[in-house]
Description:
Elements: E1 6-8, E2 13-18, H1 24-39, H2 47-57, E3 63-71, E4 89-99, E5 106-115, H3 121-139, E6 144-146, H4 153-161
Parallel strand pairs: 5-6
Antiparallel strand pairs: 1-2, 2-3, 3-4, 4-5
Helix pairs in contact: 1-2
Amino acid sequence: MKGDGEVGGGTGEFLIRPASDGDLDVIAGFEIDIARASFGAEAIEDAALHRRRVAAALGKPGEVTLVAVAVTGDGEAGTGDGEAGGGEPVGWAWLSGRTNSLTGARYGNFRSLATADIAGRGTVAELLMAAVVRAAGEAGYTHLTGKTHARNLGMRALYRKFGFEATHLTMEWRPGTGAEPGR
Length: 183
């Protein structure tokens, strides 16, 4: 996939490739980071659970699971497990195909996007988002949906850069917060 999946990152280049079983431990770490950013103290941090969830999606029809790896100076993708582009992932994205039960429209549910804390992480995020948008177009999806925590300004900016617009706002109430329902 070198070529149209490769971009310059200021400090190097990155290659987008499908996620594989050899990436699961790193991806589980990304999923834990996403959970912490989204749920704080209530985050599920069980790496084995996240690993199983992602493993079930790899290669499954309708699931787009991509990683970004750094390309070394000699044009190779890292020093991974021997497969092409087998370097350790520096970014991860996941899109699931869905069908609207009322209209039958096929759309994509953007589930995850995370990057390692590296130079060029913005480039990695943009490259992954562009690859997801391309995959959604190739799948014929009518639209994409995605969620992020209200305080995740980086992801909100990335969504806006790619033309996403806010359409719903989720509100929560939790007992013991001092507010009483109905008052």
